[in-house]
Structures are given as structure tokens and as C-alpha cells.
Design brief:
With 198 residues, the protein is α/β, with parallel strands linked by helices. The protein has one domain: 3-Layer(aba) Sandwich (Rossmann fold), CATH 3.40.50.1470. The protein has a seven-stranded mixed β-sheet, with helices on both faces. 39% of the residues are buried.
Length: 198
């Protein structure tokens, strides 16, 4: 079943834009920018959306919930219901602390893993949606509070990695939309090969 709705998870407000927790939102915005899509607020569902006509007769919606992260499932589910979309037609794009900074992993099941946005999606939308997980880990220093880390800004080293990976992040998301989760998992979940020994 093809992806028809891609939700970038994050917190609304300028102060949250540069934080690690808004990486999913940022990558979806980059995808919209690449294809020249315009955002429009859907007040009834509390989302900002961009309509992307991928091919004649095939539309994929990009969405940014206008609620805070821990309540993002409600707006996404409301928009999906309005367009009669099943969970399997939805993809969530979000930051993942368990993955090294810059890595991508695509999955379609599992727990929320401590991510409040995913927990909200599971509660309101149900299981079956694709998960486009973007690495922001590892947390350092280890004793740092989890909330402080995800709501903090990338270090200069991390930011360099994120900017270097911006194009691959967008390309991987395009692959997920075009070809579905299974092919995306096959191509994106492999670790990059190690550098050859000299």
C-alpha cells in the first residue's frame, strides 16, 4: 500500500526549530522546499499541510502537526481520517536517540521507544504506519537529562553531520514514498560499509 501522508514530528514555534527533537519536521520541510510545495494551515485538523502530486492521480500529503510533540498523534490521525487513509498509508518522520547522528532506519512496527510523538501516534492512529527514524544519538554526556538533550541544539559536530546528510535524508524519504517501506528498509537500513584499510 502506497504512502499518502508523511508527517514530520516536532514542536511548533521558532524557539524549537533548531532543536534535535524537530529533525523530522525539518526534513519534511526540506522535501517540500525541493519540490516547490506550498504549506497551508488546516485549522480543523490542527495541521499544516502541503499537497504533492507525485504523478497524475497520485497525491501525497506532507504534514506538520500544530500541536506539541506529545499530542501530535491527534492532528495526524484527524487528517488521515478526513482523507480516509489507513495507518499503512501514513509515514512518520522523527528523531531517534537510539541511532547514531545522521543514520536512517525505516520500520513499520514496535513500541514508541520512549518517543512521545510516536506514542501519541500509536494512541490516536493505531499501529501499522511507517516510521522514518533519523538518528540524533548517542546522548552525551550520558548523565544528561533526556528531555534536555532532545530539546537542545545540535553540537557543531552533529550539525555538520546533519547538514551533510540532509540530501540523503530527503532522498531516502522520497524512496519510502515512491517505493514503500519494504524497499526503503532494504536500501536504507544497512550500515554504510567500513572504510577500506590502507
Amino acid at each position: 500500500m502506497s504512502i499518502a501522508l508523511v508527517a514530520g514530528l516536532g514542536n511548533p514555534g521558532r524557539e524549537y526549530a533548531p532543536t534535535r527533537h524537530n529533525l523530522g519536521w525539518s526534513v519534511v520541510e526540506s522535501l517540500a522546499r525541493k519540490h516547490g510545495l506550498a504549506w497551508k494551515v488546516q485549522a480543523a485538523q490542527r495541521v499544516e499541510t502541503a499537497r504533492w502530486e507525485i504523478a497524475p492521480g497520485r497525491v501525497c500529503w506532507l504534514a506538520k502537526p500544530l500541536s506539541f510533540m506529545n499530542e501530535s498523534g491527534g492532528p495526524v490521525a484527524a487528517f488521515a481520517r478526513y482523507h480516509q487513509l489507513l495507518p499503512e498509508q501514513v509515514a512518520a518522520v522523527y528523531d531517534d536517540l537510539t541511532l547514531d547522528c545522521g543514520r536512517i532506519k525505516v520500520t513499520t512496527s514496535g513500541s514508541a521507544g520512549g518517543h512521545n510523538g510516536v506514542a501519541s501516534l500509536l494512541e490516536h492512529l493505531g499501529e501499522g504506519f511507517a516510521r522514518y527514524r533519523l538518528g540524533i544519538g548517542p546522548k552525551a554526556p550520558a548523565e544528561m537529562d533526556l528531555k534536555d538533550y532532545v530539546l537542545g541544539r545540535f553540537t557543531s559536530e552533529q550539525l555538520a553531520i546533519i547538514e551533510q546528510k540532509r540530501e540523503p535524508h530527503v532522498a531516502g524519504l522520497e524512496l519510502l514514498i515512491a517505493s514503500g517501506p519494504e524497499q526503503a528498509m532494504n536500501q536504507l537500513n544497512r550500515r554504510e560499509p567500513p572504510e577500506p584499510l590502507s
